[in-house]
Amino acid sequence: MEAIWVLVTAIAPIAWGSTYFVTHEFLPPDAPLWGSVLRALPAGLLLLLVARRRPRGRWWWRSLVLGVLNVGAFFLLIYTAAILLPASIASTVMASSPITIMLAAWLVVGQRPRILAGLGAAFGVAGVVLLVAGGGDIDLRGVAASVAGLLCTSLGYALATRWSGDVDVLASTAWQLVVGGILLLPAALLVEGAPPALTGVPELLAYVYVAVVATAIAYVAWFAGLQHLSSATVGLVGLLNPVTGVLLGVAIGGEALAGSQLTGLALVAIAIALGLPWRSRSRRPRLPLADPTIHARNRPESGRTRQVRRGSGGQAQTGAGNG
Predict the structure, then answer these.
(1) Cα–Cα distance measured from residue 32 to residue 115, given in angstroms and rounded to the nearest whole number
(2) How far apart are the C-alpha atoms of 23 and 313, rounded to whole Å?
(3) Which residues of the chain have pLDDT under 70?
(4) Residue 172, C-beta contacts closer than 8 angstroms, at least 6 positions apart
(5) Among residues 8, 40, 60, which one has the least CA distance to residue 237?
(6) Which among 203, 216, 248, 259 would be 20 to 30 A from 111, CA to CA?
(7) pLDDT of residue 128
């Protein structure tokens, strides 16, 4: 059953990795904040329409906290990092997400990371570094924004795991996305002005894909994985995000893979394998040793044994009568 949830969880990073290509090819490059709003808010409203549930009681403030950490603040910080840092540096920082996800889950939920998962996180960081290796100036403000975004989502995922028993994943995901989209709206208006105008059907379809597949479906799959798998496993499966982006660039964009990138792919594959919930085959329980007296009582008696028992019984009765 856990293998199924690994596959479900993998939908999220694969869909997120595909947004790099879709955004680069079809969406306006000068409106990332509006792109985030048009990604989060429609996705949240769609899920809300399907779930048909509003927050109740403590889930009002929980939705606000998760919406800020996992959507609103995260998208703003990643937007800032994208402006200040080369893509390779930002991706390298975000590649350490399995480590921060494990640590946050340990502190908040009490999920102690396995040694193999920690080793997988190290392999994963090294693999992503080789995948997206590149140069460029490092702006410490961009690094700080990337790290802050990483910590936001790690804490948000841990809290979502801790609170997951109170409400179904569809409704909680809807509430987070709606809150995050609403929080991003004023930032988009202040920084970028009016929303970008649609220029054609391909751009419209790209927005629909990003909102429905890469956000609504992907976030539901991700949070479902956090409910059914360890945070270490989910974090390492998330390394499929940069892998998908690189492979789509090769398959569709005509890019070529260098030898170091192939090595990086192999390291990421090892990292994901180390994070999977492997279980040793359970040993068959040993049967308790049989009591020989039980077998003796249950064994069918021979004719000679029955005669001896009758004879000894008759002598005992005679002796008793003589007494």
Answers:
(1) 38
(2) 98
(3) 87-88, 134-137, 278-323
(4) 59, 63, 66, 160, 163, 164, 223
(5) 8
(6) 216
(7) 86
The mean predicted confidence, pLDDT, of the chain is: 83
The CB density around residue 90, as the number of other CB atoms within 10 Å, is 22
- Indicate the domain borders of the chain: 2-275
As given in the structure block, the two tokens for residue 77 are: 């910080």
Contact between residue 265 and residue 118 where contact means Cβ atoms under 8 Å apart: no
Instruction: State the pLDDT at residue 321.
Output: 43
**Of 232, 223, 242, 245, residue with least CA distance to 272:** 232
What pLDDT was estimated at residue 5? 94
Cα separation of 16 and 33, whole Å?
Answer: 17
* C-alpha 141 chain-centroid distance: 28
For the entire predicted model, the pTM comes to 0.80
